[in-house]
Amino acid sequence: ITALAEVGVGSGDDSGAIKLWDLRQKNLALEFRENTDFIADMLYTEHKGNMLAVGSGDGCLSVFDLRAGRLLARSDPQDDELLSLALVKVS
Could you give the CA distance from residue 25 to residue 63 in angstroms, rounded to a whole number? Predict the structure, then answer.
């Protein structure tokens, strides 16, 4: 589970589904099913739009554009599971 600004929450499950919930309306706002294995970590950022990076057990890093409601980019499958994500500022 991860916070999406002040008004939303994102959740990932064991089957690879990502659900974004709007806390103001208390209902499902968006759902993505691009991943095929468990969601290990999610990282939300408002930098250059609302983006959600997702690490998965299928070895792929997926980046979603939440304003457009679509998959923006997806890495090639890695040999290992992607269990943790971190946002690093490079100067």
Answer: 25
Angle at Cα 57 formed by Cα 51 and Cα 89, nearest 5°? Answer: 40
What's the CA gap between 56 and 67, in Å, rounded? 22
Helix and strand numbers, DSSP H then E, in the chain: 0, 8
- Tell me how far apart the alpha carbons of residues 75 and 17 are, in angstroms, rounded to a whole number: 17
Report pTM: 0.89
β strands within 5-87, DSSP E: 8-12, 18-22, 27-32, 39-45, 51-56, 61-65, 70-74
Q: What is the pLDDT of residues 22-39, one digit of tens each?
A: 999 988 999 999 999 999
